[in-house]
Amino acid sequence: MSLSFTRSVIEEFRAHGGRVGGPFEGADLLLLTTTGARSGLPRTTPLGYVRHGGALLVVGSNLGAPRHPAWYHNLLAHPVVRVEVGTRAFEALAVPTEGARRAELFREAVRVAPGYGDYQASTERELPVVELAAAEPEGWAGPPEVRTLADKILEVHAWLRGQLRQVAAETEAHFAARDAHRGEGAPPVPGLGLQIRQRCLAFCQTLRFHHDGEDGHVFPVMAGHHPELAEVFARLGEEHRVIAGVQERLAALLAGVGVAEPERFRTELRRMSAELLAHLAYEEETVVPLLMEIPWPPVAGGQG
Asked: Helix, strand, coil shares of the chain as percentages rounded to 5?
């Protein structure tokens, strides 16, 4: 699609609650907003989708072209995406499926929209099938109500703990399956999958954004109001630097489509768990109580 046509489809979609005429009339259409892998800018693409269970599926058909579409490369670099369906908009974790799971879901996509089969027949590349699932970790509920900056930080901390716990559980389950296969003399279990990669990459990116915000704004402002806590803020800053080092090593291992060096990934993930959980506990003990009087969202024209 040309840029002008894509823009017109997006505008019509948003103006009419997800309904679009012309070649897309009556089709199941969503808007997928990814973050540019190189530019870092938001990129919105209208896509057909298929419902399967609680997830939405999108197929990287690119009309049967020999290359994957740009939005697919973007979500590999930035797994958290924004989805608009009808009048509803939400964040999702984009996970390309693999192996038997991908084959099963592609059959379902072809059953619903046979054109995907024609696109697959016209190219040698395997069309990606991407699940758009809940971005939150399993069991996520968040705080009952966010009224203060303290509530907001605790919400982010709870999300980070949940994501880290889920990635760690999935990683340990992988190694347990690998060891069981070894004991049975079965073929080796393939390397860590895209589910683990995408969730861990989303965790790393959110953690970096959170700590950059604290280092760039929250902590300097608080340190100015609480000079007696200079040693506390110095310790928190140093812990941020240590955690950033672990995060950079994890990001390097996640650079490819597959997780490189699974054993090293497991080691660095365990180190991240130890460092981050201790850091969050210390921050919640020393700093978060001081933020309970600051409203969230910030009051227009107010301080902070």
From this structure: 55, 15, 30
Closest residue by Cα to residue 243 from 279, 218, 286, 294: 279
* Domains of the chain from N-terminus onward: 3-134 (2.30.110.10), 149-291 (1.20.120)
**What is the chain's pLDDT, residue by residue, as a tens digit (304 residues)?**
678 889 999 999 999 999 998 888 888 999 999 999 999 999 999 999 999 988 899 999 999 999 999 999 999 999 999 999 999 999 999 999 999 999 999 999 999 999 999 999 999 999 999 999 888 888 777 667 899 999 999 999 999 999 999 999 999 998 888 888 766 555 555 568 898 999 999 999 999 999 999 999 999 999 999 999 999 999 999 999 999 999 999 999 998 877 778 999 999 999 999 999 999 999 999 999 999 999 998 876 554 4
Tokens linked to 122: 């016209």
